[in-house]
Amino acid sequence: MSYVDQLLGRDEQILYVARQHLFVLIVSILAELGQIALLVAAGVISNNAFSRGRTTPVIGNLTASNLILLVCVIISVIVMISGFIDYLRWNTEQYIVTDRRVIQVRGILNKQVIDSSLEKINDVALRQTLFGRMMNFGTVEILTASDEGVNVMDRIEGPLDFKKAMLDAKHNHERGYGYLDSQGYQGQAPRPTMSSGDIQRTLEELATLRERGILSSDEFEAKKRELLSRI
């Protein structure tokens, strides 16, 4: 069982999963490769410059030129390890929309999880630069009623799809016909009866969700039977 699966509540279902755009990782890796190239070049140039002069050992059998080259190689290895850690951090950072909340998961070994309940989401802000629109990434800010106030998902892939999935989940959650089938919960209040007009409108909305692929045919039929039972 994955870490995300352990976070889910009873019957909670994942609707959408996003992460930072691959471009963010590529830029970070390229910057670190550039640092490595500069360090190696500096080490080689320093080694050649010092090797033309006196070759008196500085530490043990190492001359000044060899010592400088060794230091550059060690720093380059550290930068390579930093690049690998960046990849792990990118791979483990996830932004998840469920039928109850939005979950942000960060951290490789030490995990940080931020939840935003759908009913507490007051507004959603989306920021995209021109380049972000071309590459399909942007920053989504969730304004909630919690003490934190704002949850930021920086430079995620497909921000428009993520925002749409989140707003659809909130819409379904508020109307009580999302992916959850809340039957089976102990202490649940009896469901109120609905008029035929309300049921017809709800069925039309469910049919629209089915056509958009948000609901499967089986889920649509299950909800249809549930709604008809309220008459």
The largest sheet is: 4 strands, antiparallel
Specify the number of helices.
7
* N-to-C series of helices and strands: HEHEEHEEEEHEEHHH
The total count of strands amounts to 9
Q: Radius of gyration over alpha carbons?
A: 27 Å
Major beta sheet, strand line-up? 1-4-5-6
Flag low-confidence runs: 179-191
Strand content: 15-25%
Helix percent band: 40-55%
Query: Globular, elongated, flat, extended or rod-shaped: what is the shape?
Result: elongated
Structural class: alpha+beta
N-to-C terminal Cα separation, in Å? 41 Å
Q: Name the average pLDDT.
A: 79
What this model shows, in words?
By secondary structure, the chain is an alpha+beta fold. Among the domains are: 22-91; 181-231. Helix content is 50%, strand content 22%. It contains 7 helices and 9 strands, in the order H-E-H-E-E-H-E-E-E-E-H-E-E-H-H-H. It has helices at residues 3-7, 22-51, 64-92, 130-135, 159-175, 196-211, 217-228, and strands at 14-18, 57-59, 62-63, 94-98, 101-106, 112-117, 121-127, 137-144, 150-157. It is elongated.
Summary, kept brief:
The protein has 231 residues and is of the alpha+beta class. It is 50% helix and 22% strand.
